[in-house]
Structure formats: C-alpha cells, structure tokens
Amino acid sequence: MTDDPTALIAELQEQERTLVFASFDNLTAWRLGTLIAERALAEDLPVAVAVRRNGQRLFHVGLPGSSADNDVWLERKMAVVDLYGCSSYLVGTRFRASGGDFDTDSRLDTARFAAHGGAFPVLVRGVGCVGSVAVSGLPQAEDHRVVVESIAAFLAAGA
Q: What's the Rg (C-alpha) of the chain?
C-alpha cells in the first residue's frame, strides 16, 4: 500500500474490480471466514472476523486478544460497506484525498459508521455487492490487508 491517496484509491478500486465471487452462499461465507480466522491465528493476530450476506451474519469469531470493542468496529465498518457498496478503507481514503474527514463531512452517525480499513464488499459477478467481510483489531491498513489477501487466496484456490 502506498501513502499517496490517488495511487491508494486506484489500488483499492483495482482490488474491488478483481476480487469478485462467481456466487456466494452460507457455506462460502463459513469457508471464507474460517480461512481468515486460520490465517489470523497463524500470524497471532488479535482480531475479530465477520462475514455477512444480505444483512445476515453468517460467520463471526473473536480470536485471542480481541474484545467486544472489535465487534463494535466490525459493525461500524460493515455499515459503511452496506451504504457505499465499496470497502470502508476506500470510502475513508476518498474523504481524506478530497481534503475532508469522514467523521465530520459524511454527516453520518459515527456511533454507527466508521470509514476505517477492514471491511470489504462481497461482490458477486453480474450481481454486485451482496454483503461484506470484515476484520477488526489492527491498524486500518493491516485490517484491510488481512481481508484482501484472504479473499484473494480464497478465490485463487477456487474455493
């Protein structure tokens, strides 16, 4: 990831263009969530992980070192994906790149919405955004990295 906002926006948009599922059902959500949790355990990451489709939570785990606060962050970041249809990191980066601040300029309730990295849209080819995958517990760029690398590995494995 780069520090240049314009380049970062392009990188985040490219991730959303390429990380697209052919389909996404309850079993896919469980497999993806399990993959993320196993990767996080292997890296000893103190995170919470959630996967949602059409408003239904299909996977959730709080790994060692995470807390209930991480669950709140998951909800807030996933609410941004639900509203904007793109990653929470992309939304926040767009606000910063335009000289703004999501917390004040979006005019949304910051108790319900957080444009911090870590929630990524579940994009289905020919359908669009049907849900979100999120990680909370690390700095925003790292939360985002864990999600994106996991989705890329999942899709590459043909799972």
A: 14
CB 116 within 8 A of CB 140: yes
pLDDT in tens, 77-101: 999 999 999 999 999 999 999 999 9
Distance CA 53, CA 64 (A): 25
Q: Dihedral (C-alpha) 2, 150, 113, 7: value to the nearest 10 degrees?
A: 20
* pTM for the full predicted model: 0.95
Q: State how many domains the chain has.
A: 1
What does the alpha-carbon distance between residue 83 and residue 81 come to, in Å, rounded to a whole number? 5
Instruction: Please write the tens of the pLDDT for every residue from 10-58.
Output: 999 999 999 999 999 999 999 999 999 999 999 999 999 999 999 999 9
**Which CATH number characterizes residue 89's domain?**
3.30.450.150
Parallel, antiparallel or unpaired: strands 119-124 and 128-136: antiparallel
Domain that includes residue 56, residue range:
5-156
Q: How far apart are CA 94 and CA 39, in angstroms?
A: 29
Task: Find the distance separating the first CA and the last CA of the chain, reported in whole Å.
Answer: 26
